[in-house]
Amino acid sequence: MSDSAPSEADAAPRKPVVGRVLMGVLIFQLGLAVLLFWGDLGEGLRLPAFGPKAPELTEPIRPGDQTRRFRPDRAPNSGQPMPDTALPDRLILTPVSGGRAALLEGTIDAGDAERIVKQLADLEPAPEQVYLNSPGGSVQDALELGRYLRREGLNTALREGDICYSACPYLLVGGASRDVPDSGSVGVHQHYFGQSTILPAFVAVEDIQRGQGAVMRYLDEMGIDPLVMQHALVTPPDEIYVLLPDELRRYGFIPEE
C-alpha cells in the first residue's frame, strides 16, 4: 500500500508544538531586550544579583579576592578610605614636574580625546610623560587618546596612591613605556558600548560585540595580552577587578622585573 498524506488528525498535534517553540523564542528575545533595557535605565537601577555582593573597594585585595564594588564618582585606591571629594567629571590636563610631565585626572567624558589631544599638542615644553588618575569613562575616547599617546611616544604612569579603572587602562597601555607603583591601582570590568538599549536586543548585542572587538584589536596593537579581558568580561559594570602587580606584568602593562 502506497504512503498516504498525513491525515488532519496526525498533523494537528504539530501546530501547538511549533507554536510553543516560536513563542519560546519570542519570550527569550523579549526577556533579553528587557534585561538590556533595565540595565541602561536611570541611575540606581541594577540587574538582579544572584550571588553575594562584592566587598567595598575600601577593603584590601588579595590574590583570588580582587573584585570590589565600584562607584566611578567615589573610587578610592583599593584598600584605602573613600575619598571625601569626587574626581573631576571630565579629564583635566595639568602640567606638572616643571612641564616635563602632564597629569590627566578625572572621568573620561565623550569628546575628551579631541580636547586633550589639542591641549597636549599646545604644551610648551612638550611633556615626556603623562600621569593618570581616572575612574574611567568613555571607551571610544580612551582608545583614541591612547593611540595618540603611542604615536607621540609619550610615557604613561600612575603616581603613588592614584587609580586607573574601567576605560583608563586603555590610556595607560597607550604609553610608550608604563609604570605603576605598588600603591597604584589598576582595574577592569565590563563596558557599555551602545548609546541606548531602547533597541531590538540583537542590535544591542551587536554593539557590545563590535565594541569588544575594537578593544581587543587595540590591546593587540599596544602589545598587551588580550587575555586580560577574561577578567573584564566577567566583572559587572558596578564592580571592578583590581589587577595584581604580577598580573600587570603578565599581561604586558608593565615590564617584567
Automatic annotation (TrEMBL):
Gene3D superfamilies xrefs: 2-enoyl-CoA Hydratase, Chain A, domain 1 (3.90.226.10)
Record field: transmembrane: 20-38
Keyword annotations of the record: Membrane, Transmembrane, Transmembrane helix
InterPro entries: ClpP/crotonase-like_dom_sf (IPR029045)
Region entry Disordered, spans: 52-88
Highest taxon, organism lineage: Bacteria
Chain intervals with Basic and acidic residues compositional bias: 65-74
The UniProt record lists the keyword Membrane: yes
Keyword Transmembrane helix appears in the UniProt entry: yes
SUPFAM superfamilies per record: ClpP/crotonase
Name assigned to this protein: Periplasmic protein-like protein
Organism lineage: Bacteria, Pseudomonadati, Pseudomonadota, Alphaproteobacteria, Rhodobacterales
